[in-house]
Design a protein that fits this description.
The chain has 213 residues and is an alpha+beta fold. 25% of the residues lie in helices and 17% in strands. The protein is built from six helices and eight strands. Belongs to the MsrA Met sulfoxide reductase family.
Length: 213
C-alpha cells in the first residue's frame, strides 16, 4: 500500500489500553522503566505475538506488544492492520545486559524472522510487519548496524538478498502505543495460537565471532 497516497487514520487522543495488567508470565509491569544497569529497546519482526514470547523466554525483564514508527495516535490493532497508520507491530523489551547481552538479544531477533523480506513475514504482508529496531542508546544503534553488516555478508554468501531492517532511534520513530490487553502475553493465554517465524535458517554471527549454530 502506498501510504503517501493514502490518508493516515486519525486515531484518538486517549490510550486504548490505559490500565494494563502486570505481565502474565513475568509478573512485572508491562511498561516497566529500566532500572540501574538495565536497558530498553523496541524490536519489530512481523507478528508481535511470537516475537514477544521469544523475548520473555530469552530472559527479558519485561515485555509488551504495541505499535511504533507510524503517525496515527493511539491506534487499534484493526487500524494498524489496514496499513494506514504507518506503525509496525513492535515488542517493547526491558533487559539487563549483564544477564541477557544486547548482542544475544539482537542475534535472536535476526534469527527469528527473515530480515531480507520487505514488509512481509511469511503470509503476513504489509508495512505493519516490517523489520525494524528502534534504539534508545548510541551503543544499541552501533551494535545493530554492525550486526546487520556481519549478518548480511553471511546471508549474501548463502544467496540471500540484502537486509532491509530499519534502525531508527526511538525518539525519531515516535511513541510506542501499547496494544490491547488481549494481545499482551498472547501465546501464554493461547498456547497453540498463531506464530509466524519466517526464519532464514542461517545463523547470525555475534560481533567478533563466526556464525553460531
Amino acid at each position: 500500500m502506498n501510504l503517501s497516497a493514502t490518508p493516515a487514520l486519525p486515531g484518538r487522543p486517549d490510550p486504548i489500553n490505559p490500565n494494563p495488567a502486570p505481565h502474565v508470565v513475568l509478573g512485572t509491569p508491562v511498561l516497566a522503566e529500566p532500572g540501574p544497569g538495565e536497558e530498553l529497546i523496541y524490536l519489530a519482526s512481523g507478528c508481535f505475538w511470537g516475537a514477544e514470547k521469544l523475548a520473555w523466554e530469552a530472559g527479558a525483564l519485561s515485555t509488551a506488544v504495541g505499535y511504533m514508527g507510524g503517525t496515527t495516535p493511539n491506534p487499534t490493532y484493526a487500524e494498524v492492520c489496514t496499513g494506514r497508520t504507518g506503525h509496525a507491530e513492535t515488542v517493547r523489551v526491558v533487559f539487563d545486559p549483564r544477564e541477557l547481552p544486547l548482542e544475544k538479544l539482537l542475534q535472536l531477533f535476526f534469527e527469528s524472522h527473515d530480515p531480507t523480506s520487505l514488509n512481509r513475514q511469511g503470509n503476513d504482508v504489509g508495512t505493519q510487519y516490517r523489520s525494524a529496531i528502534f534504539t534508545t542508546t548510541d551503543t544499541q544503534e552501533r551494535t545493530a548496524r554492525a550486526m546487520i553488516a556481519g549478518y548480511e555478508d553471511v546471508l549474501r554468501q548463502a544467496g540471500r538478498g540484502a537486509i532491509v531492517t530499519e534502525v531508527v532511534p526511538a525518539l525519531a520513530a515516535g511513541p510506542f502505543y501499547l496494544a490491547e490487553e488481549e494481545h499482551q502475553g498472547y501465546l501464554h493465554k493461547v498456547p497453540h495460537g498463531y506464530q509466524c517465524h519466517a526464519r532464514t535458517g542461517i545463523a547470525c554471527p555475534l560481533p567478533g565471532a563466526g556464525p553460531l549454530g
